[in-house]
Specification:
This protein is of the alpha+beta class. The chain has helices at residues 40-44, 47-51, 73-78, and strands at 12-17, 21-26, 31-35, 54-56, 61-64, 69-72. It has a single domain, classed as NE0471 N-terminal domain-like, CATH 3.30.2020.40. The strands form two sheets. A three-stranded antiparallel beta sheet has the order 1-2-3. A three-stranded antiparallel beta sheet has the order 4-5-6. The relative contact order is 0.20.
Length: 90
């Protein structure tokens, strides 16, 4: 199955993590920065686990295999924070 990019669906081209922020560069020139606190698995991960990421598809999202975390660009643009029942309270 071929998936083509439609106008208005930016892709991630870069990722940077600090102790407090997740920064994502998009192919349309925008840069998003969101609190790492939004993602408890990422927040609680070691620096090595945080550094081990890959793009999902052509940049539709980011995947961290060591902590089983997936974050979509669409979700970041919506400002969506998903709390899982197994995540500890912030």
């Amino acid at each position: 199955m071929t998936i083509s990019k439609t106008e208005g669906e930016p892709l991630a081209t870069g990722v940077e993590l600090t102790e407090s922020m997740l920064k994502v560069v998009l192919d349309d020139g925008r840069e998003l920065a969101v609190p790492i606190e939004w993602f408890p698995r990422l927040r609680d991960a070691t620096s090595g686990q945080r550094a081990n990421w890959r793009f999902i598809g052509r940049g539709e999202g980011i995947h961290w295999p060591d902590i089983d975390e997936d974050i979509s660009v669409a979700g970041l643009l919506r400002g969506r924070v998903v709390k899982r029942p197994t995540d500890r309270a912030a």
